[in-house]
Design brief:
Blueprint: H1 9-28, E1 33-35, E2 40-42, H2 43-48, H3 51-54, E3 56-61, E4 68-70, H4 71-85, H5 101-106, H6 119-128, E5 144-147, E6 151-154, E7 160-164, H7 169-174, H8 176-182, E8 189-198, E9 213-222, H9 233-236, E10 240-244, H10 246-249, E11 257-260, H11 261-266, H12 273-289, E12 296-300, E13 313-320, E14 323-331
């Protein structure tokens, strides 16, 4: 039952205030179409969206105690710790010894995110770098795939399969036609939803950061894929953001660049106005909440860690006592 928390009076008040500010900043100010969707989702829906096949992580077990760990997080934590101990360490993740010396230099001093590595690749890394169970030092099993959705059955027969939703997006997509009619068939527009989502995390940890049940506030902005301009982009073009694009990360660096979002879009660091607009609006929201600018950055996903539905993605990351933690994801 790790990763299940109850909120008392202070927690309820804090959460309520944050959601109230979010609703005013996004839903009301931008006239978004808000909905409240069902938590239980038909299996057919999540099969079609790719979540049944692809919404999973790789886990490993301590061979003696049976303790379970999420493989990619364990690998990253162990290798980062070793790098901290030896700044000159050169740890390759892929096990591909044919990589050029230039590529090797790029990886010095940093570990590239490995969220989307296969089980075989993770197993090779664990073997190559002799990674053991962090709590006992025992050997680990080969990585096994684990779907993160809570499975359920609908109705008395139990034949109709469902899942507790892993995100609030699917309900918005299902109701797209109704939204469009409500909006008098005009595009572009945005929908929004606030509600509980559920993920059967392999190893919940870090307090409230990685839990099995959490409140999610989500927006879907529907746009012409051939014209991703935004009518209100001029209002935010001068907002300065701390950006950590792919090309900086691939050089093994972690120092972001500071740019007005208008310049970032013009230089194609951020692909288009709509994506840039929401990065800027997210920055304004988080700083309004009290997040300090020097502890806030937007990191672009590397190709190997992108969600199965994304062609580009930027995370708003906040520096906390647990390091840099994703707080918001902006995916195109």
């Amino acid at each position: 039952v790790a990763g299940l928390y109850d909120y008392g009076p202070p927690g309820c008040a804090l959460q309520s205030n944050i959601l109230d500010l979010w609703r005013k900043h996004f839903v009301l100010e931008e006239e978004m179409l808000e909905m409240d969707g069902a938590i239980i989702t038909l299996a057919d829906v999540l099969k079609t969206s790719g979540h049944v096949d692809k919404f999973s992580d790789w886990m490993v077990k301590d061979k003696k105690t049976g303790d379970i760990f999420r493989a990619d997080h364990l690998v990253e934590a162990v290798l980062e710790a070793r790098l901290d101990g030896d700044k000159q360490a050169n740890l390759e993740l892929t096990g591909n010894d044919a990589k050029s010396q230039k590529d090797k230099k790029k990886k010095k001093g940093t570990i590239q995110p490995i969220d989307n590595y296969t089980g075989t690749e993770l197993g090779e890394i664990i073997c190559k770098h002799n990674i053991k169970s962090p709590e006992t030092g025992n050997d680990l099993t080969e990585p096994v795939e684990f779907n993160l959705m809570f499975e359920s059955s609908i109705g008395p027969t139990g034949h109709l399969k469902g899942y507790l939703r892993p995100e609030t997006a699917q309900g918005q997509f299902l109701n797209f036609k109704k939204f469009l009619e409500f909006n008098n068939d005009k595009m572009p527009f945005a929908s929004a939803s606030i509600g509980r989502s559920f993920r059967n995390e392999i190893s919940p940890r870090s307090g409230l950061l990685r839990v099995r049940e959490f409140t999610m506030a989500e927006i879907e902005h529907y746009v012409d894929p051939n014209n991703k301009k935004h009518d209100r982009f001029d209002e935010v073009k001068d907002v300065k953001l701390s950006l950590l694009p792919r090309y900086i990360q691939s050089e093994g660096k972690t120092v972001p660049i500071e740019l007005p979002i208008g310049e970032a879009v013009e230089k194609k660091i951020v692909d288009n106005e709509t994506l840039g607009y929401f990065l800027a609006r997210t920055h304004l929201f988080l700083t309004m909440l009290g997040i300090k600018c020097d502890r806030l950055r937007f990191r672009q996903h590397m190709p190997n860690e992108m969600a199965h539905y994304a062609c580009d993605c930027w995370d708003a990351e906040i520096q906390s006592s647990y390091g840099w933690i994703e707080c918001v994801g902006c995916a195109d």
